[in-house]
Design goal:
about 140 residues, mainly alpha, 2 domains
Length: about 140
């Protein structure tokens, strides 16, 4: 398997951000911040500094210690970059499918979010009737 190119990673990052709900405030959501940090720290997009290489070797030794204490082998405990990219692609596809599902449910069930009174009023209008105005005491 080949390593993903920076263009592929950028496209994947953008597709994941596209599926997140829009944010009204100027600050990004914690999830988008985490995605940015994750994609910014991938070896395919940026060369590693000596400090980053040292921290990666420390984290790999820690993960191998955890794997040996839990009975997992070192290969099964860590994921390769390709596996992480594949999982992110699957997540983007899943999020897009969920967004389409919600859109279709709202489109084909328009009365789903209405209260009972509004639903009755629209049903009466559908057959050509208008409901009488309710009497409210004090008006």
């Amino acid at each position: 398997m080949s390593t993903p190119t920076p263009t592929t990673l950028r496209s994947l990052y953008r597709s994941l951000l596209r599926e997140l709900p829009p944010r009204t405030s100027a600050t990004p959501s914690p999830l988008s911040t985490h995605l940015r940090q994750t994609f910014a720290s991938t070896p395919a997009t940026t060369p590693l500094s000596p400090i980053t290489q040292a921290s990666l070797s420390d984290s790999q030794s820690t993960s191998s210690q955890i794997a040996s204490s839990s009975g997992l082998d070192g290969i099964g405990a860590t994921k390769t970059l390709r596996q992480k990219v594949d999982e992110a692609e699957q997540l983007a596809i899943y999020l897009k499918a969920q967004r389409m599902y919600v859109t279709l449910v709202e489109r084909y069930n328009p009365g789903m979010n209405m209260n009972e009174e509004e639903r009755v009023r629209l049903t009466a209008r559908r057959v050509g009737m208008d409901l009488p105005v309710d009497y409210v005491k004090g008006e």
